[in-house]
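Model the whole thing, not chain by chain.
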Amino acid sequence: MSPAAGSSGNPPDASDFEVLQQAAEWFAVLGAPAVSPAQRQAWQAWRDADARHQAAWQQVENICGAFSHLPTADKAGARCALDTASERQLTRRRAAKMLLLLCGTGTLGWAAVRHTPWATWNAEYKTATGERRQVMLADGGGIWLNSASAIDVDYSGSLRRIHLHAGEILIQTALDLHQPPRPFVVHTTHGRMRALGTRFSVLQQDAATQVTVFEGAVELQPKAASAPALIVHAGQQSRMSRHGASPPADADSARQAWSQGLLLAENIRLADFIAELARHRPGYLGCAPEIGELRLVGAYELGDTDRVLAALEATLPVRVRRVLPWWVVVEARQEPAAR
Amino acid sequence: MPVAPAHPVAKLYTEHHGWLHAWLRRKLGCSNHAADLAQDTFLRLLSQERRGTPVETLRQPRAYLATVAHGLVVNLWRRQEIERAWLETLASRPEPLAPSPEERALLVEALCELDALLDRLNPKARSAFLMARLDGLSYVEIAGQLGVSERMVKKYMAQAMLHCLQSGLAP
């Protein structure tokens, strides 16, 4: 009746998780001092209702067995040894986490965090608009956070996981000599990316996540269970929505320049350039449609966006109008060019 | 030569075993342990192959082998740490117990298993669970010791069991 039940060794799915949860609840109920006959009957009914319930309960009993098989005389000692070993591990992990924090954020970094609108978020690392930051990971890899970005770094026993909540990151994974066997994955709203030894950037937008791979390869797995995984190789990029990933196209190599504080324009549309620049400025920065198709070449320093705007005025037939201090529009220059 | 196509793991073995052994020896400072762990690394690969992860698709076999081997090194260190903690416990006991080497090995093995089951469980749930399973305390007694309600203890117990069930499933 239930084919899932017999297939031992397969990864558990969501409904299996629910069964485990129920089994754990029943274990807690039956461990209490006064278990009523009605409770006992309810538990039996639950257990006998489904082969998966029986299998889960068998596991509960196996786990209890692992504890009760210790010789009685040794139990107190076992408890003591487990506690000591666990405390030492906890201390070590705390120290490692502290180290990670210290490496990643200088004093300036902390000052900036307090002023960002992200401060209420739980993300471990955040950047304010216009701020960029490098975070060194404990395994020797590094993550660069672009403007207005937020990530969680979650290294567990089985996985090195990064949650990208907002913005863009560039990741350089390290040759994983100093870790237990753990894959490196990045999660966004739209899906999961698994690094296959690599340097790549991930930009989370409203409708999709853009992944650009500079070295190695990355496996994309959109959220929707039916969507197939896609491998993107070095020199390619893809856009992944919840429902699927676009076929790999040539990567935009300028995509990683921001990690050096540069915005590279390789013959791109002014409208796209302004949209990119806007991510690095607080407030609104817009581009009038009539000049959006102008083309642009050059390397611009992200550290001073006002200077970038001045440079645009100097080289293109545009003017920068400051409607309000935080409301800036780039539009066509009215008067004919001087020369 | 008329040789059947080598098993992919066998191919990896001939190409990388020497390097892996040397790498482990440097890390552990002990040739015997290094040889054991190098062997275990390839065994682990074989069992992964059986579970359906083909090793031919490995893009960077060395990086992968090093990652697997490092995990085993960490397990070994953890094991040694647990054994040390156990010996310290024995030493601090008023009445000296002298378990035989086999008993000791079995017990350390069992402790490592329990330690792996409980790894990264929240400390309070862990304490509650161990008090119940190893000290044989009742929920009321545990609640008193941890300074929480009995309901909370029940919650901790479910949480701890779910954690164990899930780590039990992990490969």
